[in-house]
Amino acid sequence: MTNFWVLDYGFTKVSNLVRRLFVWVFIIHHSSFIIVGCTNDSDEAAQFFLKGNLQLQKREYKEAIRYYSEAIAKKPDFADAYNNRGLAKFRNDDREGALADYNRALDADRDFGTAYFNRAEVKLEMGDAAGSLSDLERIEKQYQDSTFYQTRLGDTYVRLNKVAQAQTAYDLALQLKPNNVEALTNRGALYYSQKDYKTAEADIRQALKLNPNQDAALNNQSLLLAHAGNYAEALTYVERALARQPRQPYYLNNKAYLLIRLNRPAEALPLVEESLQRDNQNAWAHYTLGLYWLGQRQAAKALDEFRTAEKLDASVDALYYSIGTAEFALGNKAKACEAWQRGESINDEQARRERASRCR
User: Fold this and answer.
1) Residue 9 is inside which H or E element, if any?
2) CB neighbours of residue 43 within 10 Å
3) Better-scored residue on pLDDT, 108 or 281
4) Tens digits of per-residue pLDDT, 122-162?
């Protein structure tokens, strides 16, 4: 299989991941200061801030950033403006800029819970799951009864490979709000990673019932179908996900994977290449490219990609079966048998069959 996408994190994710939209964007934790008893500069800063919020709602991120910057110029310690400018930068694919602004917001107000939440988000996107957890733990008492907080906590525990804690957080998120589509999508992804496909499907189907256009859930449904061998139907779901997020690297890769399974490799190649251009640390995309080269009878190139995938994430489905296949094609029987044995040890049925038939 290939990437099963946690919303905007990319289990993908949600994760490029797609951007998780912070629902508390427009909370102004210093609103009384902004509106009552303002100096001229503070009043102008407030006006620019509100204009920035309007542009953020309209998804005009560059304009929002411009207005927030004007607000900050008028009031350099304006924590809310730094926070919301950080969010606008995050949605505009500037993670480093977002992180810098969240840091500035917290320099201005060390108790700004919203900024800790947002900084946890961008840290998770940048691969700092431990840092994300630290920020979330800091605001636990304040937000522990929030379904959105528990969802993000679950995502962070997934990245830290703390499955039990992730499960608990997602369960609590859904107790707090049973129609939390993101929590359903991400819990479904967690079930999928544990090979509990029936339960995963129940969560994903419920997510799509609540929101038929949820791109992460559409993508995940495509992978559930692919796992069952229904590649043609799976393709329709990932294409619907791509219609909403055309350049999302995991979705591009997943479509490429399905096209390879449908014997359409020429269409798959540009998609997986674009996916890797956008995220070259994605083990699943390297695996898909390896499958492409294997199908083209270029086993050496395939093996290079499989080995890269192994370094990035050795849990990729059927990876050791594929490594063994490439090694065997290159005449390296001993290495092939070693790879298949490793696959068998992690319950890869294909690897077990190959080892049984070829390694006597």
Assistant:
1) strand 8-9
2) 15
3) 108
4) 999 898 999 999 999 999 999 999 999 999 999 999 999 99
In this prediction, residue 304 carries a pLDDT of 98
State how far Cα 179 lies from the chain centre.
20
Q: How many helices and strands in the chain, by DSSP H and E?
A: 21, 2
Residue 294: left (phi > 0), alpha (psi -120 to 50), or beta? alpha
Token output for 69: 């910057």
3-class DSSP assignment, residue 318: coil
Question: Residue 29: helix, strand or coil by DSSP?
Answer: coil
Other residues' Cβ atoms within 10 Å of the Cβ of residue 326: 25
DSSP 15: -
* Cross-strand partners of 9: 13
Kindly calculate the radius of gyration of the chain based on its CA atoms and give it in whole angstroms: 23
Encode burial over 294-312: b for 16+ CB neighbours within 10 A, e otherwise: beeeebebbbbbbebbbeb
